[in-house]
From TrEMBL:
CDD domains: MPP_YkuE_C. The keyword Metal-binding applies. It comes from the Bacteria. It comes from Deinococcus oregonensis. Residues 63-239 form the Calcineurin-like phosphoesterase domain. The lineage of its organism: Bacteria, Thermotogati, Deinococcota, Deinococci, Deinococcales. This is Metallophosphoesterase. Keywords: Hydrolase, Metal-binding.
Length: 303
């Protein structure tokens, strides 16, 4: 792998809350009437399961991956919502479950017990792994806003306490580190692009000839990958959350605009990546033409 400092040195600054301002502006316009007539709110809480079958170089036997991202537990999402997602995930019988960040969306001094109780129900032989996202950092107290309150000088202690709490519930959070899940499979996870110090090279160190999976909350990391990766899974964008007919998403929280809004995209070195629409909501509990999704990938050996 190339120099592990590449990504931390090119870390992007977080843009302003453009999506939130757009959504609030939409509420004051005629376009919001249809959304607030029930359709937009209802769409926020109707998830689907998106299934794909692909090859992954280096695999020796098939692998079934369930990818859940942007749960945003706290403000608009409660344990009942998460329970539905866990039930649907278990029904898919995945080999491994990956969480793409923004598990949390509220400030709390204690562990998010209802969320953890649901995550603990995940049934998978290879385990449950995840990464942190930008809203997780807000929940730690890394930054302040109207929703989270003031910054916390002990935010790093809070991050560590939450890592331990998630681990006790069976969820391993990867921050620039990796795991050999099988003899033929290496999983890596990077820190959040906006508020952490992502290092993809460190997350993939030791992969050797294994197939490689990398989880990054933010897809804006994709152009800066230091070397090819078998597959990268991302969230963060929510697919724009509000999409309009013919126009697509007016706002995507990415410096690349629509390029990494959702679906299959390509990163540096020709690396394939999937950007999920996520499951929760941010800013306001509204989605339009952008169904929340659990992504299930059946990965097969390359012939």
């Amino acid at each position: 792998m190339s120099d592990s400092s590449n990504l931390s040195n090119t870390r992007r600054a977080a843009p302003s809350s453009t999506r939130r301002r757009f959504l609030r502006g939409l509420l004051g316009s005629g376009a919001a009437l249809g959304l607030l007539g029930g359709a937009g709110v209802a769409q926020s809480y109707r998830h689907g399961v998106t299934r794909y079958t692909r090859t992954l170089p280096g695999l020796k036997s098939p692998l079934r991956v369930a990818f859940l991202t942007d749960l945003h537990y706290g403000l608009f999402i409660d344990a009942g919502n998460v329970q539905q997602w866990i039930d649907a995930t278990n029904a898919e019988r995945p080999d491994v479950v990956l969480l793409g960040g923004d598990q949390l969306d509220y400030r709390t001094d204690g562990p998010p017990t209802p969320l953890l109780a649901q995550l603990e129900r995940l049934q998978t032989p290879l385990g449950v792994y995840g990464v942190w996202g930008n809203h997780d950092y807000g929940s730690f107290g890394y930054y302040s806003n109207r929703h989270y309150g003031p910054e916390r000088p002990d935010w790093q202690d809070r991050r560590e306490a939450l890592r331990v709490a998630f681990a006790a519930a069976g969820v391993t959070l990867l921050r620039n580190e990796g795991r050999a899940l099988r003899a033929d499979l290496h999983l890596g996870g990077v820190d959040d692009l906006w508020h952490g110090q992502p290092d993809a090279a460190a997350a993939l160190a030791g992969a050797q000839a294994r197939a490689t999976l990398l989880v990054s909350h933010n897809p804006d990391l994709l152009p800066d990958l230091p070397a090819p990766v078998g597959l990268v899974l991302c969230g963060h964008t929510h697919g724009g959350q509000v999409r309009l007919p013919l126009l697509g998403a007016p706002v995507v929280p990415s410096q690349y605009g629509q390029k990494y809004a959702m679906g299959w995209v390509t990163g540096a070195h020709g690396t394939p990546a999937y950007v999920s629409r996520g499951l929760g909501v941010s800013g306001l509990p509204i989605r339009n033409l952008c169904t929340p999704e659990i992504t299930v990938l059946t990965l097969n050996p390359a012939s």
